[in-house]
Amino acid sequence: MKKLVLALAAATLLPAAYAVDLARTWVNPGFYSYHFERDKNLNNTNTGLGIEVPLNDTYSLTAGVFENSNRATSHYLGLYVMPFDIGPFKLGAVVGGFNGYPNANHGGWFPALIPVVALEGRQLGLNVSLVPTVHDKLHGAISFQLKYRFKP
């Protein structure tokens, strides 16, 4: 199933990447999460691989895989909607779906809406997200995602 999800993500996002300027496409090595529940021995270093494909200055497609807070493999698909600019910062949210969290839908896919602040340079960027705590299903955190774009 994991391979099918990754294949679908690649089949969806890679053609979009070629339809837009590849020099604007971001890749990331996962996240670092500062969990609010410090006493639960949660995984803060959420390594993985992700892609963010800008469609224009407001919308970007995103997909990836990472080791989640529960030390299980998670996948995500989503759309960044970043309509606000304040100086060098972009503000908005990512809407999409995640899987792999044992207490959320038995590890299956679930929807998410996560506020995001982004700082983007020419080749380096940073997404800072606020992941809410959802009872015992999802552990809240401030998540930091470094991203890089290759120049052709």
Mean pLDDT: 89
CATH class: Mainly Beta
CATH architecture tag? Beta Barrel
Domains, number:
1
In quaternary terms, these chains amount to: single chain
How would you summarize what this structure contains?
The chain has 152 residues and is mostly beta strands. The chain is 12% helix and 53% strand.
Features:
Porin; 152 residues; mainly beta; 8 strands
Account of the protein in words:
The structure is a single chain. The chain has one helix at 2-19, and strands spanning 26-35, 45-54, 59-67, 73-86, 89-98, 110-120, 124-131, 141-148. It is mostly beta strands and 152 residues long. The chain has a single domain (2-148), classed as Beta Barrel (Porin), CATH 2.40.160. A hairpin with a 5-residue loop joins strand 3 (59-67) and strand 4 (73-86). The longest helix has 18 residues, at 2-19. The termini are far apart.
List the helices and strands and how they pair.
Elements: H1 2-19, E1 26-35, E2 45-54, E3 59-67, E4 73-86, E5 89-98, E6 110-120, E7 124-131, E8 141-148
Antiparallel strand pairs: 1-2, 1-8, 2-3, 3-4, 4-5, 5-6, 6-7, 7-8
